[in-house]
Specification:
Layout (H helix, E strand, L loop, with lengths): L1 E9 L9 E2 L3 H4 L5 E8 L11 H15 L6 E6 L2 E5 L5 E8 L13 H4 L17 E7 L5 E8 L5 H15 L44 H5 L3 E8 L1 H12 L4 H4 L5 H16 L7 E9 L17 E9 H6 L5 H13 L3 H12 L28 E5 L17 E4 L7 E6 L6 E8 H13 L2
Parallel strand pairs: 6-7, 10-12, 12-14
Antiparallel strand pairs: 1-6, 2-5, 3-8, 3-13, 4-5, 7-8, 9-15, 10-11, 14-15
Length: about 450
C-alpha cells in the first residue's frame, strides 16, 4: 500500500558546533528505540508557493537543524550500556513515499500496522552510531492529502522537546525564519548527574520489575495476542469523569481538585483491572510520566533540551482499587496523585544516584515502541498499565503552510497496557489510544463507557 520513492539526508544549512554532549542518567534509561508519531493533513490547496510539500519540509528542516543541531548527530556507546551524543552533522533522514489509499481509509487513525507503515522505520540491526536521531516520512495519498510520520530518538529528547522542535520547524516552513518557539538549551550538565557512591534514600519501585499476574508468568503474558482501539471522550464526558473523581472530597481537598488527566487515567486503570478480571489480591502498577523541569532546584532553563521526564509508578491492590466506591475513581486518582507528588527534588536526586550506581543500564530499557518486544525488566502489560498524557503539549502546532493537522497521534503502541491520552484541538474532548489483550478489549470498551 505504501511505496518508498526516495530517501534524502538533510543537514543543517549552516556550520554547527562539532561537540560531544554528555548525557545525564535521566537520558540513559529510556529505550534506544524511536518514538513514532503521525500527522494527517487534508488535500493541499494551492497557496502560491513554488515549492512542493517535500521541498518545503526539506528546506525548512535544514534551517531548524541549525538551532537543534544535536538532532543531526549520532549516538555512541561509552560503556556500561550508556551513551554519548556526538554532534557531527550527519543529518536527518527524510523519506518520500506514496500510497494508493485515501485518508478516509484509515478510519479513526488507531495505531495499526497500516498506520505504522506511514512512519519511518529504523534499521536497528546497524550499529547505533549509524542510526539517524530523527527520521521523517512524507506520504502522499490518492485523495491529495498527505501524512508526515516522525520517528524521534527517545534517548536524545522527550516529547516536550520533540514538539518544540517540530513547532519551530513548522514556523520556519511558513516563512517565519527567525521564530524559534523556545531557544533550545543544549548544556545537559545543569541536570544532576547522580552520585554512584550515594545510597538511594527512597525505594525506587519505578526501576524494579512490575507485578506479574497471579498464576501466570510474565513471558506468557508477553506472548498473548493484543489489539488496539481509540476511545473518544466529549468535553461533557471528560467533565463528568472529573466530577466523579472529586465527589465526596472536602472543600479543602477541592482546592486541589483532581485534574482531567488524573480522572481519565484513574478511569482507565479501573476499567482495565475489571476487564482483565484480576484477583482482589493482585498488585497492579500504573506507570505515569512526570515532567521534572520545575521540580528540580533551580528549575531547568525554559528551553532545556533533553529528557526531563521521570516515570512514577502508582501501585494498588485490585481489591482496594475496585471496592472503595462504585468505580473507585477517587481512590485511583489519589494513588496517581501520590505517585506524581513523590517526584520531588530529593526523590529525583535519589533516583539519579540509584541509576548512577548501576554498572550497566541495558536491562532498564524497555523497547515499548516495538510490538511484542521481550526486552527490559519493566513489564507494563497485564496486570499493569503505562499512561502517557499529551495534555498541555502543542500537538496541533505542526502547520507547515498547508493548515493544521486534522489528526496527530502515536503511530505505534508496542505492548499490552500502553496508552496515550490525546487532547482534542481546543474543544475540550480527548481520545484514548490503548493496546490490550484481545480477550480483554471488548469488555474494557464496554466498561469504559458505562459510567459516562
Amino acid at each position: 500500500m505504501v511505496s518508498i520513492k526516495c530517501i534524502y539526508t538533510v543537514k543543517p544549512n549552516q556550520q554547527t558546533p562539532a561537540i560531544k554532549i554528555w548525557l545525564p542518567e535521566i537520558d540513559q534509561y529510556p529505550p534506544t528505540t524511536h518514538a513514532p508519531t503521525i500527522y494527517f493533513y487534508r488535500p493541499i490547496v494551492e497557496n502560491g508557493s513554488h515549492l512542493t510539500p517535500l521541498e518545503t519540509l526539506k528546506s525548512s528542516l535544514s534551517c531548524a537543524l541549525v538551532h537543534y543541531f544535536p538532532l543531526a548527530g549520532r549516538l555512541q556507546w561509552i560503556g556500561g550500556g550508556r551513551l554519548e551524543l556526538h554532534c557531527n552533522g550527519m543529518g536527518v533522514e527524510v523519506i518520500e513515499a506514496e500510497s494508493e489509499n485515501k485518508i478516509e481509509d484509515y478510519g479513526d487513525f488507531r495505531p495499526t500496522t497500516e498506520i505504522r507503515k506511514l512512519a519511518p522505520y529504523v534499521d536497528y540491526s546497524k550499529d547505533i552510531s549509524e542510526w539517524p536521531l530523527v527520521l521523517v516520512q512524507l506520504t502522499k495519498f490518492k485523495c491529495g492529502g498527505i501524512s508526515i510520520g516522525m520517528a524521534v530518538s527517545h534517548i536524545v529528547v522527550d516529547g516536550k522537546g520533540a514538539l518544540a522542535f517540530i513547532s519551530t520547524w513548522a514556523n520556519i516552513a511558513r516563512g517565519h525564519q527567525g521564530k524559534v518557539v523556545i531557544q533550545p538549551f543544549h548544556d545537559r550538565t545543569v541536570f544532576y548527574k547522580g552520585d554512584p557512591t550515594a545510597k538511594p534514600r527512597f525505594d525506587h519501585v519505578e526501576f524494579k520489575a512490575s507485578p506479574t499476574l497471579i498464576g501466570s508468568s510474565e513471558m506468557e503474558e508477553r506472548q498473548k495476542e493484543t489489539t488496539v482501539t481509540m476511545l473518544k471522550l466529549t468535553k461533557a464526558q471528560v467533565a463528568k469523569l472529573q466530577q466523579k473523581a472529586n465527589e465526596g472530597r472536602t472543600p479543602e481537598d477541592l482546592r486541589r481538585a483532581y485534574t482531567r488527566y488524573e480522572a481519565i487515567a484513574g478511569h482507565i486503570w479501573i476499567c482495565a483491572s475489571r476487564a482483565r478480571r484480576l484477583q482482589a489480591e493482585q498488585l497492579t502498577n500504573a506507570r505515569i510520566a512526570v515532567d521534572c523541569r520545575n521540580r528540580v532546584q533551580p528549575s531547568l532553563p525554559a528551553g532545556y533540551y533533553g529528557n526531563a521526564i521521570m516515570v512514577a509508578a502508582a501501585t494498588a491492590k485490585v481489591g482496594e482499587l475496585l471496592m472503595v466506591s462504585p468505580l473507585g475513581l477517587d481512590y485511583a486518582c489519589g494513588k496517581i496523585r501520590h505517585a506524581q507528588e513523590m517526584i520531588s527534588q530529593d526523590y529525583l536526586k535519589s533516583a539519579m544516584d540509584f541509576l548512577a550506581s548501576e554498572p550497566d543500564m541495558t536491562s532498564f530499557r524497555t523497547g515499548y515502541h516495538t510490538l511484542g518486544c521481550t526486552q527490559g525488566i519493566i513489564f507494563q502489560g497485564c496486570p499493569n498499565l503505562a499512561l502517557t498524557s499529551w495534555f498541555g503539549l502543542p500537538i496541533y502546532d505542526a502547520d507547515f503552510g498547508w493548515g493544521k493537522p486534522i489528526y496527530m497521534g502515536p503511530a505505534a503502541l508496542g505492548t499490552d497496557g500502553k496508552s496515550f491520552i490525546i487532547p482534542g484541538d481546543g474543544d475540550g474532548s480527548a481520545t484514548i489510544a490503548i493496546r490490550l489483550q484481545v480477550t480483554h478489549m471488548d469488555n474494557f470498551e464496554k466498561l469504559f463507557y458505562e459510567a459516562i
